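Journal club side-thread
Mid-discussion, someone asked how the predicted structure for our own chain would compare to the paper's figures. Pasting it here so we can look after the session.
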Amino acid sequence: MIDELMKNEELSEIIADHAAELIDFLLESGVEFSVVCNIQEVSFDPPLPEKIASTFKQFALFLLSGYALESAELDEDMFFLIFEAGFGSENFGSTVSVPTDAILQISVDGTVIFVNLCAQPHYRPKARQNSGKDSGEATVDKSLKVFMDNPQNKPLLKK
């Protein structure tokens, strides 16, 4: 039953809209927050140098604070969270675009306030399919297992 529910287009759309509305609220409130997403869904402009890009694992946690928070916005359709950030020891600047329906988790002060079990590229609602990169065959089960098996994520799951 849960597998069918997570593949349901209407539920995926509801959850994606909720993520976008929550992000919009946090941005309007000036609250620092972090998002966890599948790195395959994220785009960087300009692209990150291979030396930096190769350090990313399957999931990335982006903390929106300081300049990243100040530059953060949702696109007009609220399909993408867009912000500027510096990467690596050289502080390589890039504009980061994260599809809101590909965000697995949103946290504030280390407390998880949003979890998206429908964040699967191949189940992306039709209205959003052509909005971002099409990638991967990761399933929610594998994604959650990898996320929960990472010892650095354990504190986020305890609260």
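Post-session note: Confidence is low (pLDDT under 50) at residues 130-143.
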